[in-house]
Design goal:
single chain; alpha+beta; five-stranded mixed sheet; three-stranded antiparallel sheet; about 15% strand
Length: about 675
Amino acid sequence: MPKRKMTTYKKAGIMKKMCQDQRSTSKPPPPASSSSYAPSQPPPTVSLHLPPPPASTSAPMHPPLSPLHTSAPKHPSCAVQLQPSTSSTGRLSSPPPSTLVQPQPSTSSATALVDKVKSSYDVRQELLKDNRPTTAIDKKQLIISVDDIRRVLDIAACTVCYAPLTLSAKTDCLSSKLSVTCTNCDTGVVIRDETAKTSAGKNTKMLENNVKGVFEAVNNNIGITGLNRIISTLGIDTFSQGKFMRHTHYLYKRMDKHYPVRMKDVISAVFTHYESYDILPEPTTGLLDITVSYDRTWMTRGHSSHIGVGFVVEVDTGFIIDREVISNFCQVCSRREKRQLPATPEWMARHASSCNRNYTGTSASMGTEAARRLWSRSTQLGLRYTTYVGDGDSSTYQAVQQLNPYDVPVRKEECVNHVSKRLGTRLRKLKKEMMTTITTKTGKEMRRSLLSGPSQLTENTINKMTSYFGKAVRGEKDKPYTSTEDMRKSILASYHHAVSTDDRPQHNYCPPGINSWCFFRRGEADKTKFCRKHSTKPGYFSKIPSEHRGAILKVYTDLTNEELLKRCMKGRTQNANESLHSKLWMKVAKHKFAGISRVNFISQVVILEHNFGFEAAYFPQHLGFKTTACKSANLQFLQKESIRSSTPKQTVRHQRKKSGNSSDYISGGF
């Protein structure tokens, strides 16, 4: 059997078992609502609800929400000592930065930290432990033909007078209303979907299954076309364009009301996390200084995207604090401009509330504009982003500095992953710049790089040296850098090791000892065991002419300047932001058009799923609809898959490094 089919069957078995376990512990649902329903012509099939068990009192959906901090908050019920999370490089993240003096951890807590370090997901779940999802109900649905139901009723009788029964079926896309009545007496039963409610608690004409179906279509990037293709295959009436848009606008409006309320819990959890390290807000302003990572992303590739998004992520907990969606395009305005219709003040006033354009600049400047808006409104959340982790783009940092949103300067730290790529970029640029003119055997002149050719600056050499440069920048897990000089020596060790020969060994920067990754220094420590020569495995730069090595050394010198290394000392990354970009554009495909309303809605869904988890963030349950056992099992499965995909795989290389045989597997190990 092919491996893919085995994987599919295995996942299906896991889902089935989770669903059965969830049903065994679930509570019965409340009795069905008696809301009104608009009649329609019955189609050949309906989505039929099985009769629910007797009603019982269930727990509330969520506990009361904690208020937003405006002064030094106290949380005695959940102020637990949390261990800092680990970054993607394996280096332990330091406690959040503060202007106050930070307490030193005790010996016992330090020992526990080494034994087991919590991941950022575990930290978020611990801080949001009061926001657990409600217990799913054991509710199951069947898709069955109306004619089949009538055949069943032909052999059934009224329990009061034993007269025949009649069936009345009315359907509305995925929702349905079934009425079974006695032909002789008034005995009967009505089965219908619950209706959605507005934010004020009033009933609407939108039914449960329709709302859930439209939400899944929008959230999974299949749209009205994909949803209608599925339900039409099952013999169910499809959604019209108008009905689908009414449901999406309802979801957008409810999410705009729901999202700020849930994010207050996230801000409160950030305050709690910093309190666990005795880092409190300023007494005068009530603002808390935190470290965040910021990155921007565009909907389409190139420099012609009409939509850009910026995310702010707290680096120690991984909480998404805020986001900004920028759009410089509106279909209505564009259509009016093509028709050369004047934009009168009266029309602009009517259109302003529904216009999708909130920015008039270029696509390249969207990331800078998003950063300005996010830093400007951070004080409304009770926070100050005084330190932020960014990539090599200096325009964002300059914009924040010019904005000067606080009375303290904003400090920037570099993402070590982006810094690691700079060596490869600089070497490829150097190879293109060092060109010369040669004459071929046929007498034709052509341009050629002085660093091209065998044993020169090949692509494989660039990739290898870039990898070693990245390892040196990140450092080792159990031996963090204490100064920028240590990092500089580790980086230069890879260069000098690569240019060494038997006639001129240059291993002064390589670590000494028998456990060194450098074969030459190991040979110095034990000459009987290690006797390898440079000629047996030449360095990557050893055969490059000496007159050309100076240009390569200058690249290394530029990348080891003091200011750059200072910004890399803590080993921060933007991995959380890059992961968010992937999640966002999986739900909003780059090759399809999407407006700012949909991108804004999906960004809110992605943020809630990231902060609270799939099950606790499931939006339809916050609209008043119960989560079934099957859906709860599916959400738990998605959460496990998300955690599994974000967990680094233990390859043979990691296993050998973990077992203690770390030669050739640490920074500069070659």
